[in-house]
Structures are given as C-alpha cells and as structure tokens.
Amino acid sequence: MVRHRRKQIYLLGFMGSGKSTVGELLSRELQWPFIDLDTVIEAGQGVSIREIFERSGEPFFRQLERAALTEVLKTEPAVIALGGGTFAHDANIELIRESGGTTIWLDCSLESLRERCAGMQNRPLFRDPESLQHLLDLRLPYYRLAEFKVSTEGREAQQVTEQILLLRVF
Ligand code: S3P
C-alpha cells in the first residue's frame, strides 16, 4: 500500500503551547517552509495582534484570521502554526480538513500554560488565570478533534519536534 504523504502540518493548541517554536524547528527538520498564521495577519495589517484586538475587536480579528488561513493553506508543503483560537471555529476546521493536511494538537497542562502566558504582553485574550481556565475549557472539545496529540508538558521544543517526526505522517 502506498502511504499518502501529507504536505501540510497544522500545529494547534492553546496560547503558550509552543506552536511557533516547535513549528520553526519542525520546518527546519523537514526543510519545509514555516508559516505562522499570527505573523501573516500582523504583516497584512501592519500592526500587532494586540492592536487589532484593541482597535477593531475580536470578531474583526477572526475575519482576518479566516482570510489568512484561506491564503496560507494554498502553500504546500508547509508547517503552519495556527493561532490558539483558529481551530476553535467550525468554518476553519472545515477549511483545514479540506486541505488534506495533518492536524497536531500540542497539549499541555493549564498550570504550564499559565506560567508560559504570564509574562506575555502580546496575548490580548490572556487577562487573568481564571479567564484562561474558562477559555481552555471552551477550546478543549475542538482541540480534541485533531488527528494527533503530542504533549509538550515538561519537554523542550526539540523533544516535541522529535515526537512529531515519529508520527510517520511525512
Ligand atoms: C488567540 C491566540 C493568539 C492569537 C490571538 C488569539 C486565541 O495566538 O491568534 O491573540 O484566541 O487563543 P497564539 O496561540 O499563537 O498565542
């Protein structure tokens, strides 16, 4: 049987789960381009994600996110780091599934996510530890729809990358 070789890897998971760092390393290993969806949105608007949220609100950001996703999924091969909320919207999930790429959830405990997000100034949806719990609870049912789950708990980005390379989807 010929294995179907997937040409897009989507990294999904909560803010602070390591999508961008792992994505960079993975793309280097595979020698595939790396696309960070948040960076694409920021480049398109010429302002930071935080400013987009402050000036125009989350619904507008989600529109930009959908449009950026529609564009980036035309690139293959590619390692694509999604934003924390990208895979929590049905229309985005549909687009990603239609592209035929592989979805990998970088899972991590709330405790670690809190620690990693605490010092970050560029996460408009990170307000306080309680709201983080609530948001994660809303997101988990979506994240569980990913084809693969890789734990980033207590692991360096390099170790996570090695785990992903073992998934045999390339
Ligand atoms: C968001 C996560 C952020 C960014 C935006 C919204 C979210 O991406 O897309 O602030 O809804 O969880 P990261 O997960 O890369 O921080």
Describe this structure in words.
- 52% of the residues lie in helices and 13% in strands.
- It is of the alpha/beta class.
- The chain has a 5-stranded parallel sheet, with helices on both faces.
- The two termini are 15 Å apart.
- It binds shikimate-3-phosphate.
- Shikimate-3-phosphate binds next to loops.
Q: Which radius of gyration do the C-alpha atoms yield?
A: 15 Å
Residues in helices, as a percent range: 40-55%
Inertia-based shape: globular
N-to-C terminal Cα separation, in Å? 15 Å
How many β-strands, per DSSP? 5
- Which regions are unreliable across 5 or more consecutive residues at pLDDT < 50? none
Strand fraction equals 5-15%
Condensed summary:
It is built from 7 helices and 5 strands. The chain is of the alpha/beta class and 170 residues long. Helix 2 (37-45) crosses helix 3 (49-72).
Features:
binds shikimate-3-phosphate; 5-stranded parallel β-sheet; alpha/beta; globular; 7 helices; single chain; 170 residues
Protein topology:
Elements: E1 8-12, H1 19-30, E2 34-36, H2 37-45, H3 49-72, E3 78-81, H4 90-99, E4 102-107, H5 110-118, H6 129-143, E5 148-151, H7 157-165
Parallel strand pairs: 1-3, 1-4, 2-3, 4-5
